[in-house]
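SEQUENCE-TO-STRUCTURE ENTRY
===========================
What this section holds: a protein sequence and its matching fold, both as plain text.
Question of interest: how does this chain fold, as expressed in backbone structure tokens?
***
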Amino acid sequence: MLISISQAQAAVAPSASSGLMFQLVFLSSIFAIFYFLLIRPQRQRQRDHELMVNSVSKGDELISSGGLIGQVTAVEGDYLRLRVAADVEIVLQRQSIHAILPKGTLKSLPLSWSQARRA
């Protein structure tokens, strides 16, 4: 008798709104994770690089993204003149700057410009 009663009752269907709510919460949490772990740090790095590039002035020592190390001799709009050896200057785009080095870094390198001039 109990078995026939339990089989006679209709199953209660889960409401569609609870499934939709779960999906919205899940998708928004995935977006929040991506934002805080990927998007926000990348924007911060871009902002810091832009500030560094805009702050370059004559006399700064820097390293380019290609690995060239030199001293800025002139700033001309989006381009820099970079002295990389005793009598060698190259033109470099501002966006290709990797880092600004502390003053005096070039003099402390193993092969300084004064030694290159003698060779």
Q: What stands out?
A: The beta strands are 61-64, 69-76, 79-85, 88-93, 97-101.
